[in-house]
Predict the 3D structure of the following.
Amino acid sequence: MKTIGFPRMHKETNEKRDFLPEFFEKLLDYPVEMFLESGYGESLGYTEQDYLTKNPNIKFTNNNNCYSKDMVVVLRCPEVYELDKMREGSTLVSMLHYPTRSKRVKYLKKRNIFGVAMDAMRNDLMDRIVVDYKGTAGNGIEIAFFELSKNMQSFNIHSRPLNVSIIGMGMVGLMAAKAAGRYGSSRNEEIFKSMGLKPVMVNMLSRNITSDKEMMKQILSKTDILVDASNREDATKYIVDNSLLANLAEHAVILDLSVDPYMEDIQPIQVKAIEGIPTGTLDKYVFYPQDKEYLEIPEAVSTYQRRTVVGCNAWPGINPKSCMQLYGIQLMPMIKLLINMKASELSGDHDNFFVRAIYRSTLEFFEKSL
């Protein structure tokens, strides 16, 4: 019988996401032993009894024991010291982000850990199927507009609409545009209407626009919120270098939805699409020009031009319970299949839709597609 470990994420204080009790209820009749780390779900308000009521087969244990199982399921990728606890040949189901985590890819291969990347599970049209676009874009846009409302108290732009410029035309960018049309939330809408401001104008910036510096200078000079929702092929190159940010008004807000990390252990170093902005977390996702987090940015990156920055490396986690309810529904068909299948049985040509989706989340498929 296969064993699955569900460790907790020991990351930021505000990282509260564990799978909900209803998730485990759906596995009640499956031939699997499930081990949850003690305290699982507590930060969401659940007790061990809440989980046992839904599935009495659950066993609660320590962190080390969870990582020793045939399969480990945890939302955000564990740190290296946690991965070291896993057995060679075991399976890791997590958000692995292969394209921007080259060091992680090498480590998984070295340890012979079979990676199943939640963020790479895709349907036959290559659309993601385990994803919270609304949680990513909606949360970010709401906070960005709230920060803008504070910055604009001393600025008068009643003569023109608010301008939101979005880099990236994928689903995150499209959801951001939709949310921006409503100021991100009803609370923000009331704030801006009370100021007597005109409605929002959303500009979607394609690659042929972002590659034209003179055009970008004109666009940025009229931009109130600049959004990075890009998906770069080369994460070592900027889309907007720091000098271009001089064209942004002082009250403007930069919103980082892509949240690619700086990585100095590869050459050339991996950078953000917008040069010189900090990386946010669930514990701190708003940054002002004098904040100390700018000192943590690699020296090779220019931070001279600074504005208010809103960014979080786990945007959906702002609303953890609704996020995990969604992820649980999306992920369940693949978990059920992984319980009954061997890694060698996965194929992109399989008759089962979800088996094909799992295969596309493997390192083998990722490396073939390079």
Notes: Residues 122 and 243 are 37 Å apart (CA to CA). The mean pLDDT is 95. Residues 2-120+320-368 form a domain with the Rossmann fold fold (CATH 3.40.50.720). DSSP finds 13 helices and twelve strands in the chain.
